[in-house]
Amino acid sequence: MNNTSSTPTQSAKREEQVQGRILQGRILESKSSDIEKITQSGSYRIFITHSQADTEGKEFFQKIFSQTNTAGFWYSDHKIVPPHSEKIINTMRTCSSVFVILSPEMENPYTTSWVSFEIGVAKALGKNVWVFENPERPENNVLVPGADAYIHRPAKINNVEDYGYMKIINTGGIILPKSMSQIRVTVGHAKPVLINNVLDPNQFGHIGNVTCGNKKCKQSFFRATLKGFDSYKCPACRQPMRAKN
Fold first, then answer.
1. Domain tally for the chain?
2. Does 124 score more than 90 pLDDT?
3. What is the DSSP string of 212-239?
């Protein structure tokens, strides 16, 4: 036995300190000077997985993040020098969750390989993975295994404050919806807290937990579809699903 091991109280205190630093957006375990220069002013930072060619998706979320204290981290904007794999891991450690912005532009081998890498890192670090898709854009078949939530987004938004999932963004994506009216929040080893009315039922037609019917997938996730859209694709295997299921 190692006599220098920490006591349960010391371990819990250290975990609390680490979690506090993560939620303040500080860089942890980074050996790269260019990573260490990245700072954020909000309480949370969300890692954005996307295609650089998807200007529509980026403009949509930049508008949303500009109206909140939560920062969206767009890795490609920081001109970080390679190798990228370790720097992505170190950066993601400092983020509260991961948003995947699905788009037709993602469907090229180079982009999909990095998307797969980033999703794997996110799941290994215990981050919630949120998948957003504009149902009015052409379909794509980019797979996001392990997705925790799949949410429709409109093409444009006028009043950011009234948008249906702003509470998800304002809490850094650490929440994970369990039903139409409740979400479960877990920070470190803290006791889960229930928050009501995180999603606006007036904007979403079908809200709730579902499991993919594909026998080779069976991924369970939370989904919210916009009104007027009764079908969507499973984010993990892209098999068509009906919102009534």
1. 1
2. yes
3. ---TTT--EEEEEEETT--EEE-TTT--
